[in-house]
Amino acid sequence: MTDTPLGRSAKYTILTTGYTLSTGPGVAATVSYVTDGEYHVIVDPGMVAGRDRILGPLAELGLGPDDITDVILSHHHPDNTMNVGLFGQARVHDHKAVYRDDQWTDRDAEGHELTPSLKLIRTPGHSAEDITLLVGTDSGVTAFVGDLWWRPNGPVDDPVAPDHDVLLASRLRVLATADTIVPGHGPAFPADDTAPR
């Protein structure tokens, strides 16, 4: 079975490009908007310098918080989840369930398709519950990986990862499918031989 999404109809916009100055002060998430048909998805609405860094670019696309149908949380660290409450009408997806209002629906993220162009896979490494959103676009597959890579230069040895071999296996899985990687705290980069292992 292949990880590659069957569809190629999705589009995405990076709303704000994150950064890390350390594992403490000076952290902002890369927050992205993905759309496919009636699905309007926010990926990792985490820490930013101000909520306008998320809502401003979204408004420029003609969308408000209540237009968002789904939020994907790559993992449960606060720097990637801090602003999930901005999207009160959305279904929230993580590694094991979908949440909305007072409803909690168990489902494994592995292989879960929101649409034929939007597919979740488990990619543990930075944490045990990491997931990746694979997005099929007309120019290839983009992987929204959370902190599987923090930024284009890695780090190669994630200081938070409990097991580098698990991290490497997940990175190789993504690299086998994706054309572009959107990391947790930096700009998008090619999923090629230059990607840190």
Q: What is the string of helix and strand elements?
A: EEEEEHEHEEEEEEEHEE
Query: How many whole angstroms does the radius of gyration measure?
Result: 15 Å
Profile the largest sheet: 7 strands, mixed
Please work out how many helical segments DSSP would assign.
3
Task: Provide the β-strand percentage band.
Answer: 25-35%
Strand line-up of the largest beta sheet: 1-4-5-6-7-8-9
Helix share of residues?
A: 10-25%
User: How many structural domains in the coordinates?
Assistant: 1
Return residue spans where pLDDT drops below 50 for at least 5 consecutive residues.
none
Q: Which structural class should the secondary elements be placed in?
A: alpha+beta
Average residue pLDDT: 96
Q: Alpha-carbon distance between the termini?
A: 24 Å
CATH class: Alpha Beta
Strand element count: 15
Q: In CATH terms, what is the architecture?
A: 4-Layer Sandwich
Q: Under CATH, the topology is which?
A: Metallo-beta-lactamase, Chain A
CATH superfamily: Ribonuclease Z/Hydroxyacylglutathione hydrolase-like
Shape: globular
Based on the model shown, name its key terms.
six-stranded mixed sheet; 197 residues; Metallo-beta-lactamase, Chain A; seven-stranded mixed sheet; alpha+beta; 3 helices
